[in-house]
C-alpha cells in the first residue's frame, strides 16, 4: 500500500461503514451521498484487497479482515481527531451547557452528588440533568442527543458506544441486623433458601444475572420480591426477614443492617462512563468526562 497517497477520508468512511453496516446510514452520518460512499467503499476494497463488507438480508456484514481492522482504525482516527481538537481552548468558567446523564438510582445516590458538586464548582454555567437509565433505549437516546453520558456497567452497554471504566464495585448480601440465617459461614445451599429481593430496572423480572450463574451450578434462589429501585431495598430488608444483594457503596455506613459476602458466586462489577461518537470530539463534553473521572474514588 502506498501510504504517501493515503486519503484519511477513506478511513473515516470505513469507520462509519463498520459501525453502521449500511451504506445509506453511513452516508447520512458522513453527510455524503450514497453513491459517493459506495465509490469510497470500492476504493477501500482495492486498498485492503478484501471485500470488507458483504451484502446481507438487512444491511451488510463485515468480513474477518474488517473486524480485525475495527479497533486499530478507531484508535488511529481518535488520535488524529485529538490532534486536530487539542488546540481548542475550553474555559469551564465561561461555558454554557446542559449535560444529560443517565444512570440507575443506586449511582444517583452514591456518586450523583459528588459529580454535580464538582461540575458546578468548576463550571457554574453548566446545567446537569439526571435521568433514569433505560438500557434498551440508550443507544437511540444518545444518537439523537437526549442523553449525553451514561454511568453503568460498560459490558452491558451497546457495542457501538464508547466506554471508560471508573471504579470497581462489589455486591454484598444484606439482612436485618438480627437476621438468624445469614453469616460469613453460610453455604451456597443456605444462601439460595433465603427469601430474596431483586432489582428489575424494567420492572417485574424475578431473574437476574446472578440467578443465571446459580442455575449453571444447579441452584435456584428463592426470589419472593422484585422491585424497580435499589433505594427501596435497604428499608425493606431492615424491617423484614428478606435479604438482598446490593452494591457495597449503597449501604456503606448503615448500622441497622448485617452485611456479609455471599458464598461462592462472584459479585464484582465495574462502573464506567458510556457515550456516543457524536460527543467524542466535543471539547466541553470531553472536559465533563475528565472531571467525572477525576472526581470519583477508585
UniProtKB/TrEMBL annotation:
Ranges for domain HTH lysR-type: 6-63
Pfam families attached to this UniProt entry: HTH_1, LysR_substrate
Keywords, ordered alphabetically: DNA-binding, Transcription, Transcription regulation
Domain of life: Bacteria
Keyword DNA-binding: yes
Molecular-function annotations in GO: DNA binding; DNA-binding transcription factor activity
Family: Belongs to the LysR transcriptional regulatory family.
Protein name per Swiss-Prot or TrEMBL: LysR family transcriptional regulator
Ribonucleoprotein recorded as keyword: no
Amino acid at each position: 500500500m502506498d501510504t504517501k497517497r493515503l486519503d484519511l477520508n477513506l478511513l473515516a468512511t470505513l469507520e462509519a461503514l463498520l459501525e453502521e453496516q449500511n451504506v445509506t446510514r453511513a452516508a447520512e452520518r458522513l453527510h455524503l451521498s450514497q453513491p459517493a460512499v459506495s465509490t469510497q467503499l470500492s476504493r477501500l476494497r482495492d486498498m485492503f484487497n478484501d471485500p470488507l463488507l458483504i451484502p446481507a438480508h438487512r444491511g451488510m456484514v463485515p468480513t474477518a479482515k474488517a473486524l480485525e481492522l475495527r479497533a486499530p482504525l478507531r484508535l488511529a482516527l481518535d488520535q488524529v481527531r485529538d490532534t486536530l481538537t487539542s488546540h481548542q481552548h475550553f474555559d469551564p468558567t465561561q461555558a454554557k451547557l446542559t449535560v444529560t446523564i443517565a444512570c440507575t438510582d443506586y449511582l444517583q445516590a452514591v456518586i450523583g452528588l459528588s459529580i454535580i458538586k464538582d461540575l458546578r464548582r468548576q463550571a457554574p454555567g453548566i446545567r446537569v440533568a439526571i435521568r433514569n437509565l433505560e438500557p434498551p433505549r440508550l443507544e437511540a437516546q444518545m444518537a439523537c442527543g437526549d442523553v449525553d453520558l451514561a454511568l453503568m456497567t460498560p459490558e452491558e452497554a451497546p457495542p457501538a458506544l464508547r466506554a471508560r471504566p471508573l471504579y470497581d464495585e462489589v455486591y454484598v448480601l444484606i439482612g436485618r441486623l438480627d437476621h438468624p440465617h445469614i453469616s460469613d459461614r453460610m453455604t451456597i445451599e443456605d444462601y439460595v433458601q433465603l427469601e430474596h429481593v431483586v432489582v428489575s430496572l424494567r420492572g417485574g423480572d424475578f431473574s437476574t444475572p446472578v440467578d443465571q450463574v446459580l442455575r449453571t451450578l444447579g441452584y435456584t434462589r428463592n426470589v419472593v420480591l422484585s422491585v424497580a429501585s435499589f433505594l427501596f431495598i435497604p428499608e425493606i430488608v431492615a424491617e423484614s426477614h428478606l435479604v438482598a444483594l446490593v452494591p457495597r457503596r449503597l449501604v456503606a455506613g448503615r448500622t441497622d443492617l448485617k452485611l456479609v459476602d455471599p458464598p461462592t458466586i462472584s459479585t464484582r462489577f465495574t462502573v464506567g462512563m458510556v457515550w456516543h461518537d457524536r460527543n467524542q470530539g466535543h471539547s466541553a463534553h470531553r472536559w465533563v468526562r475528565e472531571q467525572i473521572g477525576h472526581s470519583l474514588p477508585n
